[in-house]
Amino acid sequence: MSTTANNVVRLLCASALFVAAAAALNFAVDPLQLLRPARFYTPMYSADSRMQDAGLIRSQAFDTVFMGTSLAIHFRQSDIDRLLGVTSLKLSMTGSNSHEQGFVIDAAIARGARRVIWEVDDWIFRDAAEIDSDVYLPVDLYRENFRGIAKYLVSGAMARESALVLLRSFSPIKPALSRSTMEQLFKFPLSRVDDINTLPPEADVSEVYRASRARSAFAYITDPVRSGYLGEGYGYGAMVRNFERDMVGLIAKHPEVQFDIYLPPYSILQWVAMRDASPATLKIVCDFTAYLATRLAQLPNVRLFDFRDVKDVTHDLGNYADVIHHSPAVDLKVLSWLAAGDYAVGRSAPTASLERLKAQVEAYRVEEMTRE
User: Fold this and answer.
1) Cα 274 off chain centre by
2) What's the pTM?
3) Dihedral angle over CA of 238, 239, 245, 246, nearest 10
4) I want to staple 281 with a disulfide (CB 3.0 to 4.6 A). Which of 69, 156, 231, 269 is the partner?
5) What is the 3 state secondary structure string of 230-260?
6) How large is the angle between the packed helices 268-277 and 352-363, nearest 10 degrees?
7) To the nearest whole number, what is the mean pLDDT of the chain?
């Protein structure tokens, strides 16, 4: 055999050995806990929800799923459990669409969830890639098919994380590093599920959420140069179609599951921005909300809550980091409202809260911002 052929054989053998070693390490550690809960090491968790959720569904005990977008990302599971009397699993995904959310919820229901608390904003029903074409969501990990598990086990990047998880379990490096540093160095930086995608303890909440930031965001999105952004992705027909498939279809598929769906408390400035800079978008949103509320009122296993007209919160700009993202204090209010059944949408008048919101938007004057 020639020298070249020998080198090729050696390279192939070395590659096979590397892949086998990575697979063995990943199987033993299983950093996502897809195959089994952590046994001989301290489990670590990732802030990459689209990936981490697949492992959480397999490894955690829960009876309730909490789903949403970035508006539901900072909630703590411990607060959900305490205020609602459930054993929850937060699966919220920043920037997620209804295809992704419905798919992940369905996977969690298959693992035993009997209640779904679902933060829903109209933007999630925009047209998006079909679930099998979604490059951001590792659907095969959720399906636990051969392709997904094989790719997970032979991943060199995952082997690196497996080794780091082991290192941190048996060495003192973790206490010496801040959370922000951990998140920069490791893909799995968190040792508690309760800390996934929450504000770190050192965050200055009063700096993140304040009226000046909301006012600045309003000025930014209503600038004529950028105001077209307000209408991106909004199309009534597509939104209704995706809503029927991803939400109504899922709810009808699982009549044994209680769905508590809520419309989050955007600041009043989000609606005023649409009113002043993109009225066509505001009309689409209102028309779609009317359709959504009327349709959900027909489903017996659904309770709909509308927090968008809670003026004490939505007109207090100090609650917001921009025009939509609210503070952890409002997170707790939302959970308390859900627990008490406050602001539930009546089946006999499903658009009443929408009409109240529309009246508030029409009456609001931008000059009021300076008094907030």
Assistant:
1) 24
2) 0.91
3) 130
4) 231
5) HHCCCCHHHHHHHHHHHHHHHHHHCCCCEEE
6) 70
7) 90
